[in-house]
Amino acid sequence: MSRWMSLIMGVLFFLVVGCSNISVANSYPNNKLEHKLKDDHLMVIAHRGASGYAPEHTMAAYELAKKQGADYIEIDLQMTKDGDLIAMHDDTVDRTTNGHGQVKALTLKKIKQLDAGSWFNKANPDQAKASYKGLKVPTLEEIIRHFGNSVNYYIEMKKPQEYGKMNQSLLDILKKHHLIGSGEKKGHVIIESFDADSLKSIHREFPEVETIQLGDASKMSLSTIKNYAVGVGPDVTTMNRAFIKRAHELGLVVHVWTVNDRETMEELKRWQVDAVFTNYDDQARAMIEAQ
Ligand code: G3P
Ligand code: CA
């Protein structure tokens, strides 16, 4: 092959490769997704921690999720009577402790006296452990102090409107622990909520913080959500493949909840969902590694 021909071939080769790289980067206009694009794997979010194997929202459930290799530990937040942010799904302590009453009517001191593990042993005798008896309800700060930078945090503000201060308290804690703010690692913290106004106010104050709008896919306006969030968190029972395609076309990631069976996990992976919330993060991890 003449020198000129090999030179032309070389230039052509460079043009083809160069153009393909540029197009991928621009298909998601906002570069907030760079941590997703890099290796394109399906992210696993440990729903309430490894809650299929340990009492939800306890250090034991978060430790297990970390050990099982979850990409994020999910923390639902409620606020106590004295303004502390605790990890709890329900707005009462009845289901997941041996106590009774609304979280907002109880002080942290009272909540710390409760047993947040024995209920799980009763409800899941096959997963029961003596060490779960007497587990405590952790505060958000205790969780962050315990794990520091060793895990990524996926934090849901439950009913932030009811707890007027929840937004600010959350942002103050994340700033204090250098998890948000300029120069902090992207994607280390994701804030999720069903409440759009709270996400919008976080986006106004901390545009670099990644937020996810939760809800029913059939009721979501993706073009509106795009203005204040990097993605959507649809209930798995409300969405389909076309919804994912539309979201991706708008540069939004799709994090689906709650997926606890292998078949649905595999289907969602085929549909190129970006992340799943699951109580069984080890099974999701195994599915991903098997493929
Ligand atoms: O946050 C995603 C998913 O967890 C929402 O449902 O009720 O489990 O908080 P819930
Ligand atoms: Ca949640």
TrEMBL record:
GO terms for biological process: lipid metabolic process. This is Glycerophosphoryl diester phosphodiesterase. Coiled coil: none annotated. The gene is glpQ. Residues 42-288 form the GP-PDE domain. It comes from the Bacteria. GO terms for molecular function: phosphoric diester hydrolase activity. InterPro entries: GP_PDE_dom (IPR030395), PLC-like_Pdiesterase_TIM-brl (IPR017946). PANTHER family: GLYCEROPHOSPHODIESTER PHOSPHODIESTERASE, GLYCEROPHOSPHORYL DIESTER PHOSPHODIESTERASE.
